[in-house]
Design a protein that fits this description.
With 191 residues, this protein is of the alpha+beta class. It has two domains: 71 residues, BMC (bacterial microcompartment) domain (Alpha-Beta Plaits), CATH 3.30.70.1710; 99 residues, BMC (bacterial microcompartment) domain (Alpha-Beta Plaits, 2-Layer Sandwich). 37% of the residues lie in helices and 31% in strands. The chain contains six helices and eight strands, in the order βαββαβαβαββαβα. A four-stranded antiparallel β-sheet has the order 2-3-1-4, sandwiched between helices. The chain has a four-stranded antiparallel β-sheet with strand order 6-7-5-8. α1 runs antiparallel to α2 and α4 runs antiparallel to α5. The radius of gyration is 16 Å and the shape is globular. It starts with 12 loop residues before the first strand and ends with a helix.
């Protein structure tokens, strides 16, 4: 997956639907794109036989798109999220185009659902000055998703609590870890 580079600010809203049916996922994607002026960020199969659709655009367009997708998804909808005023760092994190610099601490937030983690990424980015390093969305993860971010110890702690609260509220938190003063070799695993 690649994300376009922005010469202008990224779209202000983001919407995601996670489905248990691949066929219904493709159908929902088509409906989401037909009903509103949104940009397709992702539409693909994910582990354990699920499908996800991620769109971006103006809030009212994303709302209409997600509503149309959920109507088609019906009972196959596993989870969904709509984020108005999404933090601009969320887009590079999702597309794995973020940068990496060694910091005082690493935070790792792990979720059972893609939608809950995407919402948590936005909260992590908004809570404190952290760098979103890596995000994996259900590929070779048994349907789980995780985020790695860095910063000073306090910033990572504040952001971790905010992001984990989002995932915990949905009952989908797998784990959360803060590694202070990480060994330099650990950063090589994120490249």
């Amino acid at each position: 997956m690649s994300w376009r580079s922005f010469d202008e600010p990224p779209p202000p809203a983001l919407g995601l639907i996670e489905l248990s049916s691949i066929a219904r996922g493709m159908h929902a994607t088509d409906a989401m794109l037909k009903v509103a002026e949104v940009e397709l960020v992702l539409s693909r199969t994910i582990c354990s036989g699920k499908y996800m659709v991620l769109v971006a655009g103006e809030q009212h367009e994303v709302e209409a798109s997600v509503a149309a997708g959920l109507e088609i998804a019906a009972e196959t909808a596993v989870d969904h999220v709509l984020i108005p005023n999404v933090h601009p760092d969320v887009y590079p994190a999702i597309s794995a185009t973020g940068s990496l610099s060694q910091e005082e601490a690493i935070g790792i937030l792990e979720s059972f659902s893609v939608a809950s983690l995407v919402e948590a990424i936005d909260r992590v980015a908004k809570e404190a000055q952290v760098e979103l390093v890596q995000c994996r969305l259900a590929m070779a993860l048994g349907g789980k998703a995780y985020l790695v971010f860095t910063g000073d110890v306090d910033a990572v702690g504040y952001s971790m609590e905010a992001g984990a609260a989002v995932v915990e509220a949905r009952g989908l938190l797998v784990n959360k870890v803060i590694i202070p003063d990480p060994r330099p070799e650990l950063f090589q695993t994120f490249i």
